[in-house]
Structures
1.
Amino acid sequence: MSIQERTGVTFIVVSHDQEEAMTLADRIAVMDKGAVKQVGPPGEVYEHPASRFVANFLGSMSQYEARVTKVNGQNAEIEVPAFGRAVQAVTIPDLVAGEPLTLAIRPEKLTIHHDRPDGPNVIEGEIKDLAYFGKDSLYRVILPSGELLSVHAVNAKRKGDKRPDWHDRVWISFDPASAILLRD
């Protein structure tokens, strides 16, 4: 049991260490130049950043210029030139067709495949480089546009199983709910 839980006293911890803030706090405030950019539980701020600044501040994230092509209820079609195609995303409030925005996605929300999977959000690429960490790997995939996409994969299978390797052609997929749409 922590000191805070035993005493019931509210603590304010100021830190530039993202991991420390995310693990210690039940609410965090992200600030930029003295202005509060977002306040909320760590999971909410990480999964639903309110701006590019907050998205970049907490964890790593790939970001691409995009434009809304269609909004249909809770779903939106987003044209992403770096992907060479449109993808599907869960909409955000007041989203309209033609609106420019940033599509952001965290490396751990992507899945890497040898063969093209089914689904609306599938992108082809080539593994430019990778870092093997034992329990997980980080792949940097170059897209046909020349843009890079980072993919974090847990190494849940034994070494004998075929894992993507340097220069392999691969397919990257993601759930529409994993796409983050940012206006600023």
2.
Amino acid sequence: MAEGGEREEGAGAKDYWRRNVRLLAGLMTMWFIVSFGFGILLRGWLDQFSIAGYPLGFWFAQQGSIYAFIILIFIYVFRMRAIERTHDVDD
């Protein structure tokens, strides 16, 4: 009996960490795209548009990646709460 329970617990822990790492990978990919992609690689193309008088590429390099990072932190908190509730490891 204990052996089966241990297997279930191990499978639950693996699923928890798989979902956690998948969430982190997705959010870090989004941050990389915003900060490196929009702020550096696509800066020349984005500079044809502007926000508050500043070229969009410059804005992403200076402000946009910071705002995106803050938004991603909130997304991480909300998603991790749901994942923790699902796996019964919440506060």
